[in-house]
Amino acid sequence: YLVGDTRGIIREAAKKSCFICYKVGASITCCQTGCDRTFHLPCAPDGQCVTQYFGAYRCFCWEHSPQQTLQPRPSQDNTCTICLDTVEDKISYKTMGCPACQDARFHRQCIQTLALHAGIGFRCPCCLNQEQFMMEMLTMGIRLTKRPPSWESDQEVGPSDQRHSHCDAAMCLCPGGREHTEADGSWQLWLCSSCAAEGTHRHCSSLGNSTNTWECNTC
User: Fold this and answer.
1) Are 54 and 46 a contacting pair, CB within 8 Å?
2) Terminus of the chain with fewer CB atoms < 10 Å: N or C?
3) Regarding the domain with residue range 165-218, which homologous superfamily does it belong to in the CATH classification?
4) Segment holding 189, helix H or strand E
5) CATH architecture designation of domain 3-60
6) DSSP string of 17-70?
7) What is the pLDDT of residues 151-169, one digit of tens each?
8) Percent composition of the chain: helix, strand, coil (DSSP 3-state, to 5)
9) pTM for the predicted model, two decimal places
10) DSSP-derived 3-state class of residue 132
């Protein structure tokens, strides 16, 4: 965007309220044609909204988010393939499945954590399918990384000597782009206080001056 366009977007966002927390400053609008629901990026998980971390970085409200269409689970074993805790007996925002084997079930939070650690080795933890599985997870809002798997390296995901340095907001409003950062003010870059693997400009996620920490969607 041009600087003038960005200022216009900021002014418009200041007038819109988040349909999840009802506070103003919502800069994200559902991409479904005709839907005018707006929300803050940090509120998205609470509202079961999906952000697609590829291509145009599209966002959808709970009503218009992409849905998985899987067959009934062959094994009828309602446990998460990753953490082995109970999952819902149907596919939902919080309970996801593999489109290839149609059998693996897992919590959204579990598969997101696995994606960050597996990096380029990310695949279905049950049937090991990669291409179809990865495309489905991307569409459903799971964020992938291009790092080598954490278990093949001495470094943890988001190593302390390689600080994350760009804004991951669905719509970055910074005139200087996602890589631009400043020491303070609206374009100060905040890293997730839990994983440090994602970042946002203070303004892009509607973080007020009194905000001391920020957590990404994954955490």
Assistant:
1) no
2) N
3) Zinc/RING finger domain, C3HC4 (zinc finger) (3.30.40.10)
4) strand 189-191
5) 2-Layer Sandwich (3.30)
6) B-TTT--B---EE--STT---EE-GGGTTTTT-EE--STT--EE-TTTS-----
7) 776 444 444 445 778 899 8
8) 20, 10, 70
9) 0.64
10) helix
